[in-house]
Amino acid sequence: MVAVVILNWNGRKLLESYLGSVVRYTNPSVGRVIVADNGSTDGSVEYVRNEFPDVEVMAFSENYGFAEGYNRAIAELPSEYKYCVLLNSDVEVKDDWLTPLWKFMESHPGAGACQPAIRSLKEPDMFEYAGASGGFLDRHGYPYCRGRIFDTVEPDKGQYDTPVEVFWASGAALMVDTQLYRECGGLDKDFFAHMEEIDLCWRIRLSGRQVWAVPSSHVYHLGGGSLPASNPRKTYLNFRNNLLMLHKNLPDSVRRGVLLRRRLLDTVAWLKFILSGDRANASAIIKAHNDFRTMRKNYTQHPKENLLNVDTNIIFDYFIRNRRRYSELKN
Questions:
Q1: pLDDT tens profile 83-108
Q2: CB neighbours of residue 55 within 10 Å
Q3: Who's near 302: CB < 8 A, 6+ residues apart?
Q4: What's the chain's average pLDDT?
Q5: Cα separation of 235 and 315, whole Å?
Q6: Do 26 and 2 meet the contact criterion of CB atoms below 8 Å apart?
Q7: CB-CB contact of 194 with 238 (8 Å)
Q8: Hey, CA dihedral for 165, 167, 170, 171, is it positive or negative?
Q9: Is 25 exposed, middle or buried, given 0-12, 13-18 or 19+ CB atoms closer than 10 A?
Q10: Among the four 62, 131, 188, 240, which has the fewest Cβ within 10 Å?
Q11: What is the pTM of this model?
Q12: Cα–Cα distance between 150 and 331 in angstroms, integer?
């Protein structure tokens, strides 16, 4: 069985809009829907219990954040759930989305995690920013996707319909082997939110298992349901957590060089915010780097294998070579 776990914090309006589709189209012979609530005060728990009595509710006493909230929920899952899906509360489904993911995991024992193709709920013919059809990292640790590079999102015309092994799968709809999730330590609670799924996928791959995109399944993601892209808090978490992710998952032989280049590139991003008059986001980058210097001391164990041994330089490809689509990167 598969546990479809939706983490919620004061998201009753999202549950009212999207939970019904997940319940309706989740094959009951394959999976069950569970709402894990992070201490909501907006009546979310009461709403789910009244409107969806067959949906299990895990009610936590406080907001543990995205990472630790999921860790606590998955820790409580009974052994019958071989797989679990981390599904955002702003995801809508329109058909049997779960069965293709489950069948893929069952037929590919090397796979530790996978994601469906993620389309935009607002523009259903377009991929959605958070994951599209599978994610990768370039040599500097910048994430990009089949179907999305930086802010350029492609229409889904079937060009990425083949399943493919990827570096990371989106936390918007992430299926994971439940035992493997626990063995790898789950999501890093110190990240709180943002980049935590990429960090988890990195550790899954270091364990010897694979991460895949399985576009025979697709879901529709609203996106921006928690923080808009321009929010300084989001800027802070993305910059800080990217540095932490690189620090903890790179071997000693390359870590210092990669982080030095990233700091230089982050300085360019800071300067861009300054020149545009956006001092709030510029300050967020400074705070991210200051907090990284403190938090990195918590990570003293590093792998020996360098999984970031790639040639892709997404900044050069995107801004200099004008390669805006994933299919153009190898040309």
A1: 999 999 999 999 999 999 999 999 99
A2: 18
A3: 248, 249, 250, 251, 252, 255
A4: 96
A5: 18
A6: no
A7: yes
A8: positive
A9: middle
A10: 62
A11: 0.95
A12: 19
